[in-house]
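Notes continue from the previous slide.

Worked example: a multi-chain complex. Inputs as given:
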Amino acid sequence: MHTETKDHAELADVFNKNEARVDWHDETLWWIRQKRDKAVNHLPEWELLRETASQIKDNVLSNLAGYLVQFEENAQKNGIIVHWAADADEHNNIVLGLLHSKGITKMVKSKSMLTEECHLNDYLENNGIEVIDSDLGERIVQLAKEPPSHIVLPCIHKKKEEIGDLFHLHLGTPAGNADPQFLTETARQHLRETFLTRRAALTGVNFAVAETGEFVVCTNEGNADMGAHLAEIHIASMGIEKIIPKRKNLGVFLRLLTRSATGQPITTYSSHFSKPREGTEIHIIIVDNGRSKQLGREDFRNSLKCIRCGACMNTCPVYRRSGGHSYHSAISGPIGAILAPNLDMEKYADLPFASTLCGSCSNVCPVKIDIHQQLYKWRQVIVQNGYAPAGKKAAMKLMSLTLSSPTAYHIGGKAGRFVMKYAPFAVNNKLNLWYKQRDMPEPPKESFGEWYAKNRKA
Amino acid sequence: MKVGLFIPCYVDQFYPGAAIATLQLLEKLGVTVSYPKNQTCCGQPMANSGFEHLTGGCNELFIKNFAEFDYIVAPSGSCVLHIKEHLHSHEHEAGAAGISSKIYELSSFLTDVLKVESLPSKFPFKVGVHQSCHGQRGLHLSQMSELVAAPFSKPHSLLKMVKGIEIVPLSRIDECCGFGGTFCVAEEAVSAKMGKDRVEDHLSHGAEFITGVDMSCLMHMEGILNRRGSKVKVLHLAEILNAD
């Protein structure tokens, strides 16, 4: 996406040009939030589950190196080949090297936000490898040449009519057909051919179990399984934070994941991969790409607890009304806004400000990440590192001086109310962004302080 | 009991009615209240914009103005939350910590400290109650719709004591109004849309007044209401509890 010059506010402004579409987007995601509420309210132990998951992840983050080594040893014992990648480039090189070594030029890939973060598709295509995304939503945005706008619902920003048009263009469906059942069946047939002919399949990893060396991939469409089971080589890409200590911990996380994501009790497929079948290979690429740096940031380390459920996006009143692409980052929404500045503080300096700090994200988070507190803290870090616009710095200094002095405050307040009363055009104009869609408050004849001085003894 | 009245800067300047109602209500309930005249602002506008390092002056002033009181009461959840979470001082850290533990948002002071069980007020109108996020999710004035937990609401429990009032239901009981401090201009498009949607929820349920514990959210919704020419008014919770 070419958004280097636009920040969240500008992109959100563009999104809001079509108010009916904003309403549709907001209501679609709110419906998912309501499904989530209904599902979690069936479990009286929901808050205990969240707390348990949060504590398991605390343990993981405090002992990450040990668990990763344990996982590697056990995976190797099972016959899985383990690779380590310090960053996106190393990860992408490893994938390409594996495909080259087998003489493979076409690969099928199920959903992996890590590969979005690493821009793997672009890299492979530039190196002559064709990649087909097998998750239906991912396939749709791939055909549209767009990044996903949501980590769980990649094409949630698209209406079914637009998907019909895309399929007409790329898959030959009749023009104007937007029947979801028909379009899904078309995608199914198209992907079936892909599954049957691809020798390599890449999947993400939802959970990697240290004690067993196995990993678990959760999908609703079974597309990860279809790809992996039919390919000679299965490559699984995982961030270092995907570790859980024991298999029994899955009982906590699998119950939380999909209830939070879509309101389902569990994903349709929660597939365990522990060793390669005869004649095939499983490779795991364990990727850091900034995660160990985030682990070292005390205020932000617990953002690594994230299990990528997307609940914070569905509940976020800003996300719902600005769309995932306004975050110009692989991971959008509130969680994206606290992860992205770690990767590039300058490029993503706007994201922690794309929030009212309402706190709903932290409340739905199944692993209790204090998202809105971290948004506040990132704002401080970003300003301290010099990424605040000059005008804002000057305004804040002036505000600080005025509010630190009762005399300046009283004079300023009186002058401000005087101007609003007798020269309303000075504030009611196009330069005042408040006034664009909202009236200014009516200035009262006196402040409370002035009233108090007259009506109560000092 | 010595109670210091903290009136947030924008309430002092733009909504003296909410401040007067707060003072009168507390006096009516037998509380001795004083208003330190050199108070200005809690510092939140700078801090939420990433400039917490510029709030030192506000912090020292706040401690100087309010350290002597047994309780500090303010008609704002947001400013109280800011003080509780972010008031610090190099020189007077004990004073800062003391203030954080004795500052109350008005409705929780009435329910938790004064333990008010009845009020002489009357307000025979249909009222929509806006749950301001910082009061609700920050100070836990009400249960939050995201959690699996028993419902309660301090502002609602007080409003129920008011004769004649009818509280209208809302489709989204605790969605943000989109004010968000400097967010309201920095993210103008999303902020205004959030405000319009919130107002619409109240209007479509027949509210004649919209109330809440934070005048900032109400100021935002008032701006939207006035722009669309609505007759619906906003009133701070204190103004309804003080109505007779």
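Summary box: DSSP finds 13 helices and eight strands in chain B. Chain B has two domains: 2-113, 126-241.
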